[in-house]
Write a structure and sequence with these properties.
Elements: H1 2-45, H2 48-52, E1 55-66, E2 72-78, H3 79-87, E3 95-107, E4 110-121, E5 124-138, E6 141-151
Parallel strand pairs: 1-6
Antiparallel strand pairs: 1-2, 3-4, 4-5, 5-6
Length: 158
């Protein structure tokens, strides 16, 4: 009976510990998602200061897709170029990047978010793809340190 009692208690502690880990994981995933949502809030408001508040230093942005000839294209740019282009969009141009799907993985101080999107320009569909964010938790603050996206029209709006 004592062996059974000890095994049951051990099992209960294991279940409680796993539940706590799952709750912690969910909390961190929520924090990562909030970081990315804040980035896009700044993006849509054309507010580079808000965007910068959730981005690390010296971030590299990359994009890949296919050109009109079907050849793979790949481009890199520094984050400052994005800030500059966003704040300089004229008021006559409307744009929205709709985030459609989320998959977030967290391990200790590192996270990856795979986020589907549709991009709309002046009310018309432009393209869709995936944003892949890499984030680091700097002493309690999740910061985006790398972003690569895909772009295309095929398979969108299905």
């Amino acid at each position: 009976m004592t062996k059974f009692y000890f095994t049951a208690i051990s099992f209960c502690f294991f279940v409680l510990a796993m539940g706590q880990k799952t709750n912690t994981q969910k909390t961190e995933q929520d924090a990562v998602k909030k970081t990315i949502e804040t980035f896009f809030e700044g993006f849509h408001k054309q507010d580079s200061i808000l965007m910068k508040s959730v981005v690390g230093d010296n971030v590299l942005l990359q994009t890949t897709g296919r050109n009109k000839e079907g050849k793979t294209m790949f481009r890199s740019q520094g984050i400052e170029k994005l800030y500059e282009s966003i704040v300089n969009i004229p008021d006559s141009v409307s744009f929205e990047e709709k985030l459609t799907t989320w998959s977030i993985q967290v391990d200790r101080t590192m996270a990856n978010a795979w986020v589907g999107y549709e991009f709309w320009l002046n009310g018309d569909f432009s393209h869709c793809g995936i944003n892949s964010f890499q984030l680091i938790n700097f002493d309690g603050d999740w910061k985006i340190i790398y972003l690569i996206d895909t772009r295309g029209r095929a398979g969108c709006l299905d």
